[in-house]
């Protein structure tokens, strides 16, 4: 028997493409369906966010910058772990492992130049916390011919599958991705386009706020059909799954290349519609039999976006994953706690139908405490 198999406690840490900060969860896996014990969010300050954004493009002395940021992230993640365990009945010695996704700064799944980079000094995180750390989840899937993303559908299957309902789980983070859960047990999914990322950047530039609260600013603008058409003409949207994407494509330069002299609020409204259209069209095209749609990620709280999504989709139900037992804000971090558990128990963490990998693989590099 694996030495770790009896322990039930794991920590999941996720810092996504939205670059808002660190989501961390303390979870209990006494059964295969986990329960959340505690959650913690640690926002990025402007300095680290700026440095991380800069690393998405080639620049001077990138290796040193990346190494120093990896160390800095290990310290931030340690703060999140300590905050989870503070005043908790669970101690560091009780935790089997931390599943830490790290901060993605490059993701290029193209066959001819396949690589992915998530920053974190996992060895340092192990030293600082005294807890086994599992990291680098994408690389093994990429090595097996896959996209390396999205990785959350396997967790969605474990947590949200229903034998009677055709469900789609929509994660609206910086990038939006779908997971289709067929009652037969079949699972598929893919990245479908920008979620919050471009809207957040545009909002920050023109309002000074890090995001458009409830989509209120977008609601003051008008959708520009010609601009939306230009956005949707991007080749990514016509590529068949499996597929994944990130800031390497959908960045601020990409946005600026489509703009002329539009009003800022109209651009925001159109960016919001880009997210709605890319999500709804993906569901209608690939999963027309969908009964229920459940939303998670930061974009699930954008009321204007979710209302427009309801208008665009003809499904029986659209709701937050809260109704399925996991609050929308904490699904991704929970997924990496689960992926760490899969690695420790030597079980696969990917779904080949989602990523395009040659088969199931155990994901993650383990740094024992």
Give me a quick take on this structure.
The chain is an alpha/beta fold and 369 residues long. It has helices at residues 46-54, 62-85, 122-129, 138-143, 152-160, 197-207, 216-219, 225-232, 252-256, 264-286, 303-312, 331-344, 352-355; strands at 9-15, 21-28, 35-43, 95-108, 115-119, 133-135, 167-172, 175-181, 187-194, 292-296, 317-320, 365-367.
Q: What is the average per-residue confidence, as pLDDT, rounded to a whole number?
A: 94
* Domain module tally: 2
> What would CATH call the class of the largest domain?
Alpha Beta
Structural class: alpha/beta
Keywords, please?
single chain, 369 residues, alpha/beta, Nucleotidyltransferase, domain 5, globular
Structural overview:
The strands form two sheets. Strands 1, 2, 3, 4, 5, 6 and 12 form a seven-stranded mixed beta sheet that branches. The protein has a five-stranded mixed beta sheet with strand order 9-8-7-10-11, with helices on both faces. The longest helix is centred in the first third of the chain and has 24 residues, at 62-85. It is 37% helix and 21% strand. It has 369 residues and is α/β, with parallel strands linked by helices. Residues 1-5 have low confidence and may be disordered. The radius of gyration is 20 Å and the shape is globular. 50% of the residues are buried. The protein has helices spanning 46-54, 62-85, 122-129, 138-143, 152-160, 197-207, 216-219, 225-232, 252-256, 264-286, 303-312, 331-344, 352-355; strands at 9-15, 21-28, 35-43, 95-108, 115-119, 133-135, 167-172, 175-181, 187-194, 292-296, 317-320, 365-367. It has two domains: 9-147 and 330-367, ATPase, nucleotide binding domain (Nucleotidyltransferase, domain 5, 2-Layer Sandwich), CATH 3.30.420; 152-324, Nucleotidyltransferase, domain 5 (2-Layer Sandwich). Helix 6 (197-207) packs antiparallel against helix 10 (264-286). It is built from 13 helices and twelve strands.
């Amino acid at each position: 028997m694996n030495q770790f198999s009896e322990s039930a406690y794991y920590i999941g840490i996720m810092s996504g493409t939205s670059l808002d900060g660190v989501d961390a969860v303390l979870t209990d896996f006494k059964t295969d369906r986990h329960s959340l014990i505690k959650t913690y969010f640690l926002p990025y300050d402007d300095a680290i966010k700026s440095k991380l954004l800069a690393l998405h493009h080639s620049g001077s002395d990138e290796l040193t910058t990346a190494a120093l940021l990896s160390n800095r992230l290990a310290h931030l993640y340690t703060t999140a772990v300590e905050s989870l365990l503070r005043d908790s009945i669970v101690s560091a010695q009780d935790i089997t492992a931390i599943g830490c996704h790290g901060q993605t700064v490059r993701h290029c799944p193209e066959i001819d130049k396949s690589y992915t980079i998530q920053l974190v000094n996992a060895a340092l995180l192990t030293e600082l916390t005294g807890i086994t750390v599992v990291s680098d989840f994408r690389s093994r899937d990429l090595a097996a011919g896959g996209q390396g993303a999205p990785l959350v559908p396997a967790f969605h299957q474990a947590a949200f599958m229903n034998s009677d309902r055709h469900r789609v789980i929509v994660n609206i983070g910086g990038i939006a991705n779908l997971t289709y859960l067929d009652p037969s047990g079949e699972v598929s999914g893919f990245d479908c386009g920008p979620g919050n990322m471009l809207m957040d950047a545009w909002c920050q530039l023109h309002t000074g706020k890090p995001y458009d609260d409830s989509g209120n600013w977008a609601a003051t603008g008008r959708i520009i059909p010609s601009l939306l058409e230009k956005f949707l003409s991007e080749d990514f949207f016509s590529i068949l799954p499996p597929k994944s994407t990130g800031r390497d494509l959908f960045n601020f330069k990409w946005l600026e290349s489509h703009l002329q002299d539009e009003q800022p609020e109209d651009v925001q409204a159109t960016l919001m519609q880009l997210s709605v259209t890319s999500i709804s069209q993906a569901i209608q095209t690939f999963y027309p039999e969908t009964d229920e749609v459940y939303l998670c990620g930061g974009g699930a709280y954008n009321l204007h976006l979710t209302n427009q999504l309801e208008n665009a989709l003809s499904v029986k139900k659209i709701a937050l994953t809260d109704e399925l037992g996991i609050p929308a804000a904490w699904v991704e971090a929970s997924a990496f706690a689960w992926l760490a558990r899969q690695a420790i128990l030597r079980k696969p963490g990917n779904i080949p139908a989602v990523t395009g990998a040659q088969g199931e693989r155990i994901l993650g590099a383990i740094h024992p405490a």
